[in-house]
Specification:
With about 100 residues, this protein is mainly α. The chain has four helices and no strands. About 55% of the residues lie in helices and about 0% in strands. This is Carrier domain-containing protein.
């Protein structure tokens, strides 16, 4: 069973909460760059990634993570959705063994 895709709105809300900046809700969109347009500093980026991992039950390997996934909110949503579904597929395989 696949998880629902991660939405742009969910990610923008998380960015707004991590930055404690409600203006993110209106000024960011699917094409916004997570670092440059959202203005996340390095500490905020770590908090954001940890929040994404917790909320979507994914594990993001920082050593293998491609920064291009942060080039737009939509690209990041696609990446997280794919990771979540791959993780769920592995869990289901383990349960059937």
């Amino acid at each position: 069973m696949q998880q629902s895709p991660v939405t742009v709105e969910q990610i923008i809300t998380m960015i707004s909460e991590v930055k404690q900046d409600p203006s993110c809700l209106t000024r960011l969109d699917r094409d916004s760059d997570i670092i440059h347009d959202a203005g996340l500093d390095s500490i905020q980026l770590i908090h954001f990634i940890l929040r994404v991992e917790d909320d979507f039950n994914v594990e993001i390997d920082f050593e293998e993570f491609d920064m291009e996934h942060l080039g737009s909110i939509q690209a990041f949503c696609n990446f997280v959705s794919l990771e979540a579904n791959q993780g769920q597929a592995v869990e289901e395989q383990v349960k059937t063994v």
